[in-house]
Amino acid sequence: MHGRRVTANLLLAVLAVGVVPFAACAQANPANPSATANPTSENSTTALGAAPIASFSQITAVTPLSNGIELRDGPLLLHITALRDDVLRIRASRNGILPEDASWAVLPQARISAIAVIQDSDARVAGFHTTSLRVTVDRATGLLRLLDLAGNVLQQEAEPLQFQGDRFRIADTMPADEHYFGLGDKTGAFDRRGEAFRMWNTDAYGWQESTDPLYKSIPFYLTYRAATSLGILIDNTFPCSFDFGKTLGDTFQYRADGGPADIYILYGPSAKQVLASYAWLTGPTPLPPLWVLGFQQSRYSYMSQQAVLQVADRLRQDRIPADAIYLDIDYQDKNRPFTVNTTAFPDMAGMVAKLHQEGFHVVAITDLHIPYLSGQNYAPFDSGMAGNQFVRNADGSLFVGPVWPGPSVFPDFTQQQTREWWGKLYKRFDRIGIDGFWNDMNEPSVFNSLKTMPDSAVDRINEPGFVSRLANQREIHNVYGMENSRATFDGQLVLRPDVRPFVLTRASYAGGQRYAATWTGDDSATWNHLRLTTLMLKNLGLSGFSLAGADVGGYAGTPSAELLTKWIEVSAFQPIDRDHAEKGSGPHEPWANGPTHEAIRRHFIDTRYELLPYLYTVMEDNTRTGLPLLRPLFLEFPDAAPDHHPIDVDPDAGGEFMVGPDLLIAAPPFLDKANDYDAKLPSSGWYDFWTGDQVEESHVPPRTAGQQPDTAKDTFVPTVHLHPELASLPVFVRPGAILPMETLVQHTDQRPEGPLRLRVFPGPHCTGELYQDDGTSFAYKRGSFLRMTFSCEVRENHSSIAIHIGKHEGSYSAWWRQIAVEVAGFFKRPLAVTVDGRTTSFDMVNHSVRILLTDDGYGMDVVISEPVP
User: Fold this and answer.
1) Of 558, 332, 284, 310, nearest to 440 (Cα)?
2) Catalytic residues, which ones?
3) Which residue, 77, 661, 759, 797, has most beta carbons within 10 Å?
4) Could you say which residues of the chain have pLDDT below 70?
5) What is the structure's pLDDT at 49?
């Protein structure tokens, strides 16, 4: 939400005093030169042209530090320090004094971390090394290089860091075979190489493939070259740009329009290690409530209590599993946050209670704009004014801007006291029983010519770890949405200390994953937007946001029946599965377009629910490792291609993604095409998830007539030939995977009936894991969880398969009493099956051996003896 259907009267209702246009990055936006949403301020390019350039052209003084070095070039100051053996921090200043050491993104304990280093400075270079990395700075040129201890160059400056007035620029060389990922949900190709992007959180209704900027500013990217990765976080909230060789083909350029030069470099060498370090630096996604992984139904808007209950009843009546229903702004009185339209929703508490009885959770939107209603007994405005909680203009007056409720004021979330005040506004909704909250429009979006607050609007930073001071929107704008979601998250913890919060935010910054899930904003009901969703969610996962999704079916417009069906199929394997649509569009609910489409859609939602034990286990792992639920193939298979390039960037793999370590979704590159296609597999031996059979693969990639194979790149990458069909989606399972699954439920509060299913797909490094807890509270932090590990081994000459089922760890009780072990890949009936040495009975189901075991919690060993060939 929401489309920008604003009347002229609303646009003219109120404009802020002293509006100053947006101060753009240090150069015109190369990604979208025609963009006019945020015009350049009068102080930007003119000042840039006039200010002298100061760069580290030579090193005049070197001071060893216990954890790094200090370098000077006249008044220019550079600190390079090691937080860990594999994590460096670079800070620079043009006036000899480092700026305030504070961050909205980086955790305090990470910023103050330090290790001892070994100094390497001599007459030619200044530098040091850790047990993983070597830093050298050429004294004569000021150029910095980063190497591993084998001497391989990991990063090299093309030009020294330079300042020009308050702005600064970074320029690094770009090796021809290096790839770049991250920056959140920017549009375009998965690989950022050859593109440029701006950071300025923007309400981008109607965005398309070339639109930039979008809703989030996540200044973190990951480099990938021959399976070696670095992560780069440039922790600067000011407007800035990232240019991955679009302007200069072999040079990466970063330009900031102000703020600190504060850079973190995270070394892998694997991409997995980089993501783990990024989670250490900025914090992982907290474990969500289990219901968040269920199917979620939304619309702008279900206009009445009756309409909401009808949708819920239809979901249950048609046996379409679902866990959440969303309330968009029309449940409110005149679009005023924290109110209820009692005419359309006469018994909100009763409605929520009824939905709870039926196994639904309720998520209500709470936009951050507070309508300017002086003297009208509107508590959020009155209490906010009494506590001085709102953003002001440069002259001290309130900033007032038009949004959905009309003239509105905006909380100053850079104040701890304001976030605490905001959290208390949820008391009424907490008593009603609403389960989660949706922070939309928090770029912030304003219905004026700027589409947001002016640069000159003043925030008051009053935050632990920061110096208390005034700051304008040029500095705060990009973190505003994140601090809004932080206030909501923390407010829920105060109101319900032992209930995991759920917050969905549209705008955010690096580290925002600590507080909220997100989505890709107001997408459109087109096949291209379905295709882009996969690319955007991959990059969000590589930017810290594991809990992310899109508006299923496309928010803007009415999807065709085929598009909605295919979108529901794909989204069943994405982290947040929320069906949402704008006002005026056609029906998006799963039963839209008739029973044939509904049956297909239900089948995929059913599959998602059967996979919940696996999905939840991967999410729990994410809280410890930073590895996203939806991930690119190269994260799991860095050696898939002979030259170690990431196979995800190949055009014929554009629709593919991994779900956790074991599932590969092989959607076609263009989902509206009926053409056959060849999906790439990152290794051999994969199984078809639906049938359990191993797939027939080819080791010669597809190519057009007369085209020669590229033997250096991907000639020997396995492929599987596929024919797209509306009712199917290719899903493959890694050889060596053990998938925990459950019997179908209609919602996550329903106890599954029957046994836990363990689907075993024999192969190398055969392992699996299961994590369970109550799905709601923080009792798991006190030991109330259940964890099990599994393994299998194909013994010599394929004479037998040994499966180990680990004991229960933790104090949480399993919902099952039996485990159904299903081992794929049997075309003949085994000779025998033993459990802890005792022969037991078994069944053959298609080409799988099925063994039903009683689970006493102590673990067991199963051996399947195969027939002699």
Assistant:
1) 332
2) 440, 443, 522
3) 759
4) 1-50, 700-716, 868-869
5) 55
- Mind listing the pLDDT tens digit for each residue in 682-717? 999 999 999 999 999 997 554 433 444 444 444 568
Question: For all residues of the chain together, what is the average pLDDT?
Answer: 92
The reported pLDDT for the residue numbered 41 is 30
What is the predicted pLDDT for the residue at 21? Answer: 27
Helix or strand run (H / E) with residue 537: helix 527-541
Residues 363 and 384: their CA atoms lie apart, in Å, by 24
Distance CA 159, CA 144 (A): 9
For residues 113 and 109, give the distance between their C-alpha atoms in angstroms, rounded to a whole number. 6
Query: Cα separations (Å) of 777 from 286, 302, 499, 770, 781?
Result: 12, 30, 5, 18, 9
- Extract the runs of DSSP E, i.e. beta strands, from 352-415: 361-365, 370-371, 401-403, 406-409
Under a CB-based contact definition with an 8 Å cutoff, are residues 632 and 538 in contact? Answer: yes
Specify the pairing of strand 76-84 against strand 295-297: unpaired
End-to-end CA distance of the chain: 61
> Residues 398, 390: contact at Cβ < 8 Å?
yes
Rounded CA separation 650/654 (Å): 7
Strands 167-173 and 153-164: antiparallel
Phi, psi of 845 (to 5 degrees): -125, 110
pLDDT of residue 868: 61
Closest by Cα among 857, 858, 823 to 843 = 823
Task: Collect all residues with Cβ–Cβ distance below 8 Å to 745 and sequence separation of at least 6.
Answer: 321, 609, 751, 752
